[in-house]
Amino acid sequence: MTNVGIVIVSHSPKVAEGAADMVRQMVGDSVPLAWTGGNPDGGLGTDVAGILRAIERAWSDAGVAILVDLGGAESNSEMAIEMLDAARRDKVVVCEAPVVEGAVMAATEASGGATLEAVQRTAEELSPT
Amino acid sequence: MDTDMQRRLIEAVAGAVIERADELTALDQAIGDGDHGLNMRRGFEAVLAQIDGLAGAPLPDALRTVGTTMVMKVGGASGPLYGTLFLTLGKELPAAPTRDDIVRAFGAAIAAVKKIGRSEVGQKTMLDVLAPAHDELALGGDGPCGRVGQRAAAAAEATVPMKAIKGRASFLGERSIGHMDPGARSSALMIAAICQVLEGTT
Are B196 and B8 in contact (CB under 8 A)? Predict the structure, then answer.
């Protein structure tokens, strides 16, 4: 796949899966997409190992944009990026954007073949400044 | 560091947090998402499950394993934060550290926590305990810990009137005032546990 991949990380598996459903409805199978949610025990939270697996599932040589909900989702995603191989680390970014709207906008941008930088910028335009 | 001392330090730090998990959760329910105690307990139980290997490993390796375990098992923002603290200590400390080594490594670990948390002292976080404890350690004083334990406990209390700027508590704005920060409390508990072991009071 040459389009940028999208990973959705929420404290809630239901939110992550629901946001992924909305992305699929918008872009179909044109964008690699994965979601993860919940802590290592399955409760609300996020899991670095789960995020690493999601990055693997959504991998694209064009890069992967991660959309997150609250604090721990962001810091655990950054931790997961640090644990990637050096060759992949620079191709994964965390977007500072609302998770649902950001994921849909990022995926729409990605489905047109945009670069990782453009995908991230489009998602982050949704953030209040 | 000898195996017995290393075992006692790890068990004391893990035990102090696990014992007070309910208190940490209650603090987090007041101003956060109420998972700090549960998350930290999950992390430190995973640490204790490896205690024999950790006790026998060189100190830097043991600290890095504790850090990785916290990162992988905690499941909340405190995982990367405490994970980074231990990983950096493991990276910076030699196998048999002097006090100066500890002061320098602790400083580097605090800088790494600031970086991953994008936070500074004064924002009602664990840094408001770690930074003054580091200052106190650098001052020296009597015994292995000087007044570090007391300073950390007082610094945790001093987060009560602060307004949260970072993390979930910052969503509450002014309403975060009047509650102790749970991360500050867990940091103070760990520091107290280390000091008690080093000073032979447990």
Answer: no
Domain that holds residue B157: 3-198
A12 contacts chain B (CB < 8 A): no
Domains of chain A, first to last: 5-124 (3.40.50.510)
> Which CATH number belongs to the domain containing residue B174 in this structure?
1.25.40.340
Q: Are B104 and B132 in contact (CB under 8 A)?
A: no
Tell me whether 0.85 is exceeded by the ipTM: no
For residue range B96-123, list pLDDT tens digits in order: 999 999 999 999 999 999 999 999 999 9
pTM comes to 0.90
Check CB contact under 8 Å for A48 and B39: no
For B8-19, how does the pLDDT look when each residue is reduced to its tens digit (9 = 90+)?
A: 999 999 999 999
Rounded to 5°, angle at Cα B29 from B25 and B33: 95
| Rounded CA separation B184/A119 (Å) | 37
Verify whether the Cβ–Cβ distance A75 to B42 is below 8 Å.
Answer: no
Q: Is A129 a catalytic residue?
A: no
Question: Best of A47, A48, A94 to disrupt the B interface by mutation (most B CBs within 10 Å)?
Answer: A48
Amino acid residing at B158? A
| Interface test with chain A among B25, B31, B33, by most A beta carbons within 10 Å | B33
Measured on CA atoms in the order A75, A78, A80, A83, is the torsion positive or negative?
negative
Inform me whether the C-beta atom of residue B144 falls under 8 Å from chain A C-beta atoms. no
